[in-house]
Amino acid sequence: MYTIYTSPGCGPCMTVKAHLRAHKIPHTLVDVSQDPAAVEKLRKMGYSSAPVTVDEATGEHWHGYLPDRYASPAPEAAPAADMQATIDLGPVEAGEHVLWDPHQGHLLIIGDRDSGKSVIQRGIMETAVSVGWQAWGLGLPGELDKVEDHRYAQVVTADVSDQLERIRAASELMRERYHLVEVASLAQECPEPFQPIVLVLDDYAHLRQRWADLAPAGEHEADVAENLLLGIHRLGRSVGIHLSVSCRGIAHHLGQTMAAGSTVVHTSLWRSSLVTEMAHAR
């Protein structure tokens, strides 16, 4: 597992990220412009600019784009996906566990600060990967990047440009899968099952504000990303793309839209219900 320290507008940083994605190399991205502790860490390591790569397995680190130093994962097959898996979200007041069935609806996690939302999201990602799903985690610095390293398809990023690219990739993949379904239907064949993906957005309102503040096109890019997420909310589930969104309220457009048919967990109350019962939660 590699940790990549990047900065906005850094050409070599974009090259490193593109290389890791193309070769499906597990990695975590840290945007140093948003993480003063990371800047101090790099300074102590002797670096004053990005990108910097740290090999968490060996402790080695280097500056710039050095493609030969990244070890591609072994060509071992990922575990067969459990297409009907449900995900245990944790215990509730009575000691019983809340189960999320992604096939029955997307997930909305509402709660106050430090009420356990990120803990649930990390658990969702680890469980998803353990049953052969992909988990793409978009969060704030220092939150989702605590997820345990995995051999298969684990993507965790707090980098704004990479987060926006991941959302575009999820939307494009959804359209590609729909096209495959249509082709199979015309041929009167059954399409091959798609590997399920959980797209996790942790502390969504703050994520969206970071996109508006830090993306090159600002609010426009944040609006585009939200519209793509709304499209995934409408159509993604039928082709194996599931949303898990946490936030402190649903005043934002995505949360309000998810108030139809999704499952909600309110971490401050620790109870699970249909979000239609909480459509006016703030």
Describe this protein's structure:
By secondary structure, the protein is an alpha/beta fold. The protein has two domains: 68 residues, Glutaredoxin (3-Layer(aba) Sandwich), CATH 3.40.30; 192 residues, P-loop containing nucleotide triphosphate hydrolases (Rossmann fold). 34% of the residues lie in helices and 21% in strands. It is built from seven helices and 13 strands. The strands form two sheets. Strands 4-3-1-2-9-8-10-11-7-12-13 form an eleven-stranded mixed beta sheet, sandwiched between helices. A hairpin with a 5-residue loop joins β3 and β4. α5 runs antiparallel to α6. The protein is globular.
Q: What attributes characterize this protein structure?
A:
34% helix, Glutaredoxin, 2 domains, 7 helices, 21% strand, P-loop_NTPase, single chain, Thioredoxin-like_sf, alpha/beta, Glutaredoxin domain-containing protein, plasmid, 282 residues, globular
